[in-house]
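Need a sequence for this fold. Nothing fancy.
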């Protein structure tokens, strides 16, 4: 397998199930219990349910857990293929640092998948401490993976000359990382604003930013 063999269709395959399920759960939650969207700990309107509120109860939790589980399984296989590609590209040179980075790159990705799976299985409506720690694990490992992946791609560009068919997906991956980093920063910022000051629309903004954080976390590794 070559680097260009990982096509644009792969990230869409990874997100093909979770995105429709998430949209359906959010819309059904708004329809089923619009009054409940006002019941934050600050008693201020939320307007749109958080991911946990929309996917943490009854059949919605079952559908969401199954969709994320399928996505995680696909991502594991895609990452194994991606890891073999990177290993082959670095194998021709004496790159000890890159080999160590590849090992960390692989381990931290599996950690990120585990964090995503745990925060899906344990929504904040049922077990907030586990959900909070799982989300922290997911976000931290996502950022570490992104930094490591960008470093490895930068090293590859300095060691090899790629065709235009490879450069385009690499640029797309970098821009996807930018979206993810901004989403993580905004979600964290508005979470602390909401928790500390109970500012109006802060929980609503956090709920919106939490979705790009999760979805780019699904997309970025396979882009």
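Here you go.
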């Amino acid at each position: 397998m070559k680097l260009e063999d990982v096509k644009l269709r792969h990230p869409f395959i990874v997100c093909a199930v979770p995105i429709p399920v998430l949209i359906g759960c959010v819309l059904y939650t708004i329809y089923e219990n619009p009054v409940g969207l006002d019941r934050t700990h600050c008693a201020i309107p939320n307007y749109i349910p958080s991911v946990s509120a929309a996917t943490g109860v009854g059949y919605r939790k079952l559908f969401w857990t199954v969709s994320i589980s399928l996505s995680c399984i696909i991502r594991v296989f895609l990452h194994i293929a991606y890891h073999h590609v990177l290993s082959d590209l670095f194998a021709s040179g004496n790159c000890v640092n890159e080999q160590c980075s590849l090992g960390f790159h692989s381990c931290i990705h599996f950690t990120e998948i585990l964090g995503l799976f745990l925060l899906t299985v344990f929504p904040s409506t049922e077990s907030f401490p586990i959900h909070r720690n799982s989300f922290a694990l997911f976000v931290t490992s996502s950022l570490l993976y992104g930094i490591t992946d960008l470093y490895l791609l930068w090293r590859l560009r300095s060691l090899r000359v790629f065709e235009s068919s490879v450069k385009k997906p690499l640029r797309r991956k970098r821009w996807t990382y930018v979206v993810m980093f901004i989403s993580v920063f905004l979600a964290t910022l508005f979470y602390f604003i909401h928790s500390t000051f109970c500012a109006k629309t802060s929980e609503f903004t956090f709920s919106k930013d939490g979705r790009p954080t999760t979805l780019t976390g699904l997309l970025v590794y396979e882009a």
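For context: The chain is about 75% helix and 0% strand.
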